[in-house]
Amino acid sequence: MTKSLKFSFLLFLGLFLGVSPVRAIDLPDFPSCTSPTGSILVNYESGIHGIPGSSGEYVGSDVVYTVSDTQVTQCFCAVSGSGIQTNWWKLNSLDQEQIEYLKNLGWIYIADGSAWGLDATPYMALNTQYNCGGAPVVTPTPTGSPAPQPCNGCGGAPTWSCTAAKPAAPVVTSVVRSATTAQITWTAVANATHYVISYGTEPGKYIYGVPNTGKVTSYVVGSLVPGTRYYFVVIAVNDCMPSDPSTSGQVLGASTTRGDVLGLASTGSLPAVYLSLALGGLFFALFLLTKKLSRRSA
């Protein structure tokens, strides 16, 4: 049944029952994340992201496209290869009855888009799943009916959740930095199937990352900019369930531009540093002694 026939039927049914029908809604078309269009608003290669209608944390990449002045497409791709597409529709003139009608179709009402990095205005959001490639897709178990349903009065689509046990957070034990690489080492987590490394040049802003290191406890990150300080966190993943970020060693790396060293470069070690300091102090003491003796002899 086409959109026009559907709304004509609703209009006829409303008049027959003596109930005011919902004013027709012209739903916009959104491109699929499998072949996205529009300009890129933000692009995160890895990290922890949120999905509207869900309170969970999702690990993977996230690309947001501006389709039009009122349409934004968010393409999230989990480390497992399963994707969630969120269609964001900026509201202009929908009344409350139309909003309720869309909520019954699975749309989620967002009162203020600024909390999601969008304009400070109401939006409607709709989540759908797609396959973004990568590892074999792990199908999560839905907590509700697979078909779009009202979320027990909250107006959201069914919340999909991962049923795997949450692993413990790893502990970063060392970061060995060279000019363009950094070798990160962490403790093993019992039920982890793989690990995720997130990093960036500011604390808490991890715009780079490795979505799947495999089941290892050490990894070399390349393509770093010499003289730039980096901050690293490691996340353990049990199938589709991520851990909290690493509990220590969150600020590690080296900076040759500011002189701050948080972790030693691969060419240095603590004994070498202590030896250099001791030799420097010895030479300074000899200089003072020589100067004092020269004054006495004069």
Automatic annotation (TrEMBL):
Annotated ranges, domain Fibronectin type-III: 166-256
PROSITE patterns found in the cross-reference section: FN3 (PS50853)
Spans traversing the lipid bilayer: 272-290
SUPFAM superfamilies assigned to the protein according to its UniProt record, in alphabetical order: Fibronectin type III
UniProt keywords, alphabetically: Membrane, Signal, Transmembrane, Transmembrane helix
InterPro entries the UniProt entry points to: FN3_dom (IPR003961), FN3_sf (IPR036116), Ig-like_fold (IPR013783)
Pfam families with a match to the protein in the record: fn3
Signal peptide span: 1-24
Protein's name according to its UniProt entry: Fibronectin type-III domain-containing protein
Source organism per UniProt: Candidatus Amesbacteria bacterium RIFOXYB1_FULL_44_23
